[in-house]
Amino acid sequence: MRWPWKWDADLERELAADLELEEEEQRERGVPAEEAHYAAKRAFGNPTLIREQTREVWSWVWLERCWRDLRCALRQMRKSPGFAAVVVLVLALAIGANASVFSVLNAVVLRPLKFPHADRLVEITSLKDQKPVGTSPPDVKDFAAQSRTFEKIAVYDEWRKNVSTSANGGDAEEMLVGLAPRELFEALGVQPLLGRLFTAEEGLAGRNHVAVITESFWRTRYQRDAKILGRTLTINDQPYTIIGVVPDAIPGWMSASYNQQRGLALWEPFLPAPDAWSEASRSGRGFGTIGLLRRGASLAEAQADLTQIAANLAASYPADQGVGVEVMPLANLRSGDLKPLLSLLMGAVALILLIACSNLAALLLARNSARHREFALRKALGAGRAALVRQVLTEALVLSATGSGLGLGMAWGTTLALRRSDPGHLPQLLDLTLDWRVVAFALAAGLGTCLFFGVTPALASARLHAADALKDGGRSSSGRARQGFRKMLVTAQIALSLMLLVGAGLVIQTLERLQHQDLGFGIDHLMHAQLYLPPARYSTPKAITAFCDLLTARLRAVPGVRAVSVTEVYPPSDRWREMFSVEGRRVARIEDIPSTAFGVVDADYLRTAGITVVQGRDFSASDGERTLPVAIVNQAFAKKFFPGQNPLERRIEVGAPANLLAADEWMGTQRVTVTIVGVMRDNLDQGLALPAAPQLLGLFRQMPMVNSGFKDLLVRSDLAPAALQHSIERQLRMLDPGIPLSEAASMSERLGDLTAVQRFTSVILACFAGLGLMLAAMGIYGVIAYLVAQRTQEIGIRLALGAPRGAVVWLVSSQGLRMTLAGVAVGLAGTALATRSLTSLLYGISALDPRTLALASMALLGIALAACALPARRASRIDPMQALRIE
Amino acid sequence: MSSMEKKSQQQRASLLQGTLDMLILRTLLYGPAHGHEIGKHIQRTTNDFLQMQHGSLYPALHRLEKRGWVSSQWETAPDRNREFKYYRLTDKGRKQLVVEESQWKQMAEAVARVMWPAAEER
User: Fold this and answer.
1) CB pairs under 8 A between A and B
2) Closest Cα of chain B to A479: distance in Å?
3) Contacts with A22 from chain B: Cβ below 8 Å
4) Helix count (H) and strand count (E) of chain B?
5) The pLDDT of residue B65
6) Mean per-residue pLDDT for A178-191?
7) CA geometry: angle at A419 spanning A414 and A420, to 5°?
8) Partner-chain contact A21 B85, CB within 8 Å
9) Structural contact between residues A357 and A419, judged by C-beta atoms closer than 8 angstroms
10) CB contact, 8 Å: B35 with chain A?
11) Closest-CA residue of chain B to A1
């Protein structure tokens, strides 16, 4: 094979020699020298074409052609750096935003779970009133025994416990401990690295003091000690023997009841209570359950199978009446409530890409119209149609490749930043990476954009007639259709920007409402922390109460502390539900048993949390173990259960009504009758986005059956959070060094975490909307400026004939106005269609809020007019004489 | 150039396309020649019916060279005292000429049988 450059010179020489010979022959025939020269050239024809066609004989020619097109494209970029920079930047922003959102979507929804049989793993939950409520161990045992579609079913849970790696329980740390049978690990395909999993006998009371630790716990606490098996660690002051080490394969999002970011550190056998498997526990729901389907069993079959079993159970056990079951792919648990948010963001970011595409298409179209003369010249010099199209496409490709590359870099930076800043502590984001799906997505988006904005201009440029375009002086009069297309593109941009703007406006207002709503309690200077009093040392309710009294007395003495309360609930959410009966109202059916949000607190709770009493009295220090049990209800409770009546002095029996149900999840078989002594103001007890549900509070010292070791500490003080935490820890250590303080945070921080997702969304949507607006403004400006350039002559004539300058301004800006109005109309229609995807993320505002729609439309109109103003002004300044003389 | 002229030339060119390789090989049977000579020879021999288009001649020469049917060399022309690129037939080219010739003959006979059936019957 000969090399192109050598070969090129050779062909050049051959052609020159033969041409010269032809010329000589002409001269020898008597043709005058000068004429002979041209005659020879004519006889030879187009030398460029000969060269091109001869070159094509050799196979490397396509490579060379690409190289030439590439060089040409790069030269074009250098020649107009402003244009190239705008295109690359717009594309990089659009692709960067898309790839970032896509990588989140990928981590949370798309990527397959990292388990061996991921496609056969499902989540199982019982349904009450169509709402998932978790499962109860006896139900799960029956599911596992009777189902034909499951290979394994495992119930699991996680509990706050004090864990110490030393055998005597010193330096305990509060952490979540998983409770699971061996089936959980087997279903997930998790094999122990060392040792073994739990046996079935170890799930029984008395045999269950064994633990399996994860690899990271083994590494950080034991430095990967090879002789770890058989060592003892202390959980809640009880010795547990380590029997195995498993890899960190169980992610935090599997936690059934806590928003746990990292996976759990250690596991013990599933035995949440000694009687967890007994019949009395059948109504004690709230546990997580996963199942591994048999090979070949479908989700629908599994659902039908369990539904049948649940129906049989409902017929046999009163506790299961009206309880359904739901089977979902395990991946649903991972995406959780992020799915609607992510689809919204993906939609928004796709709009950005669409806007960017149409913007770039319009830009390239305009630029190629301006390059008519260049294309005509190329054509006249022998460039084929294919060559022109190829060249324009290559330019688009170079621009899009540069843009995509930059965009991918931006996405990479964003994922790093997201993983580090971690808005909302989402466990799913720990897996956030740019894997091949994200790269493929970005490349496809870039290529698609290139095809979209490259092909139309390329075809347009190929369609022109060389002579016409050259004569035309660069002004295309035949561009009506193309202008129509550009206007359509701009209209689309305006419509899409409006949708983004409305979405951003609504989410920002939602955030505003969430943050500034009346919470019903005081969040300033309020700190919250958790305590756990292990039953080994605090075995009786009396001991627990005594410890709480000692602790609060000590903390109250700390200078700067204004109020202290130990409680088992606190705003803004209370997930504890209790059945109850009002004295004098007999309930005949299980479905009619009333229930309420419930909690037990100490006498200082309302004062510390800043909740006011609106009727009756607050708890007092004189409400003791030996006095009548009292309760305080919220306004919602009074309104729902005593409408138009005085709730004070009414007597309520907390617990399942004895005539219908033997036992209840928390109270067991015990019941206690309380007297309502006060009504407190409604404060949030179902999270930020729901109104307060009926709530009933009692005193834990008066209700020993629910006085557990899980306690929350609320402290209102003038101290800085760090100093306060330090003081609390010191007092706690002086009382009992074996009790750690955990999750200490100010209430405003906690609430900030709760709105983190909305804040994150609003920031992103606002950025997207801004980007969209900028692009749309650029689009309008481009089209109008181009129109003015095209119609310079016409405007000159109008002015010369006496048209007032105001009329010219109107002539130009009315074009922009028309496009904008059309775009706004389309955008409003699009918003109406998209409301459903938005509604789930909004609070306190309708997805079709007229004020937001109106303001967004006005904003767009304003921006469009501003974008028209510059070209309109330029048009009105046209000097008629000069405009006409240009020709 | 009128459109009629253009059209007839295109027709001729397309007629040539398949056979040009054969004509070049046949011309080179007389001995080495450079591009210009080959073109002129074909043109002369056909009484100017086949106007040599350089646009197809040079690509054809290079195609033949790439396939190894001709080889090229810069040599001084006997009458001009200058170097030209001379093409000469290779052994492979000779064989190819035989193949193309027989194919052309079959083709011509087939066409003739369709066009002048009476002449064939005689």
Assistant:
1) 52
2) 28
3) 36
4) 5, 3
5) 87
6) 92
7) 100
8) no
9) no
10) yes
11) B66
Q: Is B5 exposed, middle or buried (0-12, 13-18, 19+ CB in 10 A)?
A: exposed
- A12 touching B (Cβ < 8 Å): no
| Higher local confidence (pLDDT), A836 or A139 | A139
Residues 6+ positions from A287 with CB-CB distance below 8 Å: A134, A135, A136, A137, A140, A155, A156, A157, A256, A272
**Tokens 């439309």 identify what position?**
A857
Pull the structure tokens for residue A429. Answer: 């984001």
Cα(A712)–Cα(A529) distance, integer angstroms: 6
What would the mean pLDDT of A661-679 be, rounded to a whole number? 83
DSSP A540: S
Report which listed range, A128-137, A171-180, A552-561, is most confident. Answer: A552-561
Select the residue of B34, B55, B63 nearest A18 (Cβ to Cβ): B34
CA distance A666 to A670: 9
Which residues of chain A make contact with B74, given a CB cutoff of 8 A?
A: 13
Quote the minimal CA–CA distance from B59 to chain A in Å. 4
A45 vs B contacts (CB less than 8 Å): 53-55
Residue A520 backbone class (left: φ over 0; alpha: ψ -120 to 50; beta: rest): left
Is A10 in the B-facing interface, judged by CB distances under 8 Å? Answer: yes
d(CA A556, CA A551): 9
Closest CA to A502 of A868, A96, A834, A756: A834
Whether residue B85 and residue A57 make contact (CB cut-off 8 A), yes or no, is no
A14/B63 touch (CB, cutoff 8 Å), yes or no:
no
Q: Which of B34, B43, B58, B79 should we substitute to test contact with A (largest number of A Cβ atoms within 10 Å)?
A: B58
Are A45 and B35 an interchain contact pair (Cβ–Cβ within 8 Å)? no
More confident call, A601 vs A380:
A601
The fold for domain B9-121 equals: Arc Repressor Mutant, subunit A (1.10.10)
**pTM summary value:** 0.64
Give yes or no for B116 touching A (CB within 8 A).
no
Q: What pLDDT was estimated at residue A481?
A: 55
Domain extents in chain B: 9-121
Check CB contact of A58 with chain B, cutoff 8 Å: yes
Considering chain A, what is the average pLDDT of its residues? 83
Cβ atoms of A456 and A360 within 8 Å: the answer is no
Nearest to B58 among A17, A22, A50 (CB): A50
Per the CB < 8 Å rule, is B66 touching A58? yes
ipTM over 0.85: no
- Nearest Cα neighbor of A681 from A613, A769, A739 is A613
What average pLDDT score do residues A397-403 get? 84
Q: Is B34 on the interface with A (CB under 8 A)?
A: yes
| Domain boundaries defined on chain A | 4-58, 118-335, 339-516+756-885, 538-735
In what side-by-side order are the strands of the sheet with A561-567?
Answer: A561-567, A710-717, A526-532, A742-746
Residue A724, Cβ neighbours under 10 Å: how many?
Answer: 23
| Residues of chain B numbered 50-69 and touching chain A (CB < 8 Å) | 53-56, 58-59, 62-63, 66
Of A341, A406, A485, the closest CA to residue A93 belongs to: A406
Cα–Cα distance between B72 and B74 in angstroms, integer? 7
Which three-class secondary structure state does DSSP give residue A739?
coil
Other C-beta atoms lying within 10 Å of the C-beta of residue A768: 25
**pLDDT digit string (tens) for B47-84?**
777 766 677 788 888 888 888 899 988 888 877 778 88
CA distance A836 to A610: 38
Residues for chain B: how many in total? 122
**Can you give the pLDDT at residue A167?**
77
Q: Give the gap in angstroms from C-alpha A23 to the nearest C-alpha of chain B.
A: 11
Cα separation, A677 vs A693, in Å, equals 19
